[in-house]
Write a structure and sequence with these properties.
3% strand; Four Helix Bundle (Hemerythrin (Met), subunit A); 53% helix; mainly alpha
């Protein structure tokens, strides 16, 4: 595993925590100045309710913290995948070992480094059909220099596909937003502290629908990325789980196309509900693999 590539992810996680601290340290004094008391606040309040109530420069910190919970989630998932497949000339052993044959890709533990354990390396390969391990037939697998087989990586393909689709929506959003802003006489160079939400009352709804969907792709799909990576790590990312992963991606792409074009709420909801059921199924599969819920 090429763990060096995870260093930027660790730095960005730490920076996100810095922004969280900065948000809190600036927000609470500003709320006190505005005469707001959390103890007496009405139920259901959210951070966005503070817009226009406390100093705008204070809310800028929370805006940025929110942004750090959006696109960087794709960054984290991508770096983990790159760490798995490797990019260097020299193979780097993973920090944990995995068992061969009977328990593929188990997490490392005490006394696991026994004879026959397989250590994953960055050489990605498609294994031919053969009697050695029927689970590797036709699946995306990883071959060790020691002759062992690493399976369970198939689900990483839909992860990359959905990350790629998110970038397509990002391009679509700006390809329609920038011309719409020009037609509305909005000069981005003169804007200070604005957010995409502030354009909802200014730009045509059909233009903003793309932005709304781009934001949605940073909500439930983040759970998909996490669950898919867990399934890959424990070697359960092939077969039905890989198929469920592709089904989830297909439904999210369909959801995007509906919301970005016709945006019929009921149709959009039905597709979202179906994708959520697929995500629940994947989560259950991950729970079975991690906690041994097979009864």
């Amino acid at each position: 595993m090429q763990a060096q590539i995870l260093a930027p992810a660790a730095v960005l996680v730490l920076w996100s925590l810095v922004m969280l601290s900065w948000t809190a340290l600036s927000r609470f004094p500003a709320m006190a100045k505005a005469g707001m008391d959390l103890k007496n606040a009405a139920p259901g309040g959210r951070g966005q309710d503070l817009e226009g109530v406390i100093d705008a420069r204070v809310t800028w910190k929370s805006h940025n913290y929110t942004h750090l919970m959006e696109q960087p989630t794709l960054f984290y998932a991508t770096l983990v995948i790159l760490a798995f497949v490797g990019a260097g000339a020299t193979d780097v052993l993973l920090a944990w070992a995995c068992r061969a044959a009977d328990h593929p890709f188990d997490l490392a533990g005490d006394s696991q480094r026994r004879l026959g354990a397989v250590y994953p390396v960055p050489d990605l390969d498609r294994l031919p059909a053969g009697p050695r391990d029927s689970r590797s037939h036709g699946h995306l697998a990883r071959r060790s220099q020691r002759g062992g087989v690493m399976i369970g990586m198939g689900i990483l393909q839909p992860v990359v596909a959905l990350a790629g689709w998110t970038m397509v929506m990002w391009l679509w959003m700006y390809a329609t937003r920038i011309p719409a802003m020009n037609r509305a006489g909005i000069d981005a160079k003169s804007l200070t502290g604005g957010t995409g939400k502030s354009l909802d009352d200014v730009l045509p709804p059909a233009v903003q629908w793309k932005a709304h969907n781009y934001n949605h792709l940073h909500e439930a799909p983040t759970v998909f990325y996490a669950v898919a990576l867990v399934l890959a790590i424990v070697g359960q990312g092939d077969g039905i789980n890989a198929m469920l992963g592709w089904a989830y991606v297909a439904l999210r792409v369909l959801h995007s196309l509906i919301q970005a074009t016709v945006n019929r709420v009921m149709v959009r909801f039905l597709v979202f509900a179906l994708s959520s059921l697929v995500l629940i199924a994947l989560t259950l599969q991950a729970g079975i693999a991690m906690f041994g819920w097979q009864g």
